[in-house]
Write a structure and sequence with these properties.
Rossmann fold, binds aspartic acid, 5-stranded parallel beta sheet, 38% helix
Length: 332
Amino acid sequence: MNAADPNEILDDEAALQLDANGNLRHLLTLKGLDRALLTDILDDAEGYLTAPGDLPARSQSLAGRTVGNLFFEPSTRTRASFDLAGKRLGADVLNLDVNTSSRKKGESILDTIYTLQAMHVDIMVVRDASDGVPAYIARHVQPHVSILNAGESDVSHPTQGLLDVLTIRQHKGAFENLTIAIVGDIRHSRVAMSATHALTTLGVGDLRLISPPVLAPDADKVPGAHIVDNLAEGIADADVVMALRIQRERIGNLDGIPGIDEYFANYGVSHDSMKLARPDAIVMHPGPMNRGIEIEGSLADGSQSVITQQVTNGVAVRMAVLDRVGKTMAAR
Ligand code: ASP
């Protein structure tokens, strides 16, 4: 294998996720997971949804297992939902406080992982600002340990991709005839990458990635998607519009990035810009939202918005993934 070829590295990463029987062992990327497996995970997640006001779904499928949350970047939704998902499946959940962890004292990530592994942490949920960290850890842990990517640099965020496609499926059914517009800082967005991986595998009709040219992705990273720099053109007749935050923490030099007013005027998802989409279009956002920059606040709170449903689905999807890797572990 030519280790310098990023596509081959990704293929290798995709292969690393499945055991010899094709069962999910790690979740590192949605790239390379086939349609049947994605659909099965979405179906499982549906089974964990209950009506508002009813008690959340629970099982004991992970009783005796320990889930460790290792978030080396900030998180609200992903971390809270992995915590709840693990507990609702009966696991012990360890939320490592990275600010007081030994990694701050110079301990390597692998030494931190080996320490947790020695304490029987069987499933490690990892978020990190560097490329390749989840796969690197997955290559080094003991055979029974699972690694779940909870956000990797600007590369991927697979459980977010799953909750996004679940939300779209709930509202729109089959993916083939859909026009989906993702608007914002596509270049630095792991959310856009994982959504693209899932949507193209699921056969989406027309996927448009809309951003100012300075925030556009490299075309070879998003095969199957259309890169568009004009919001009106990109959003026209869309069934789904997803707004994304500018990832300022990943942009070294902000020169050339439009100011807030200019950005909102040209790329803001607003009541005005939504007039160009289909009348029944849904509005999505992975959070955290910057109201008045990438999305108009009243639109985010309005009847087309499915943003809180995305959050609800996030817990269900994470339960489905945890349960699945737990079953792979039990079958060893
Ligand atoms: N919460 C998402 C992520 O971790 C989106 C964002 O931060 O803008 O990538």
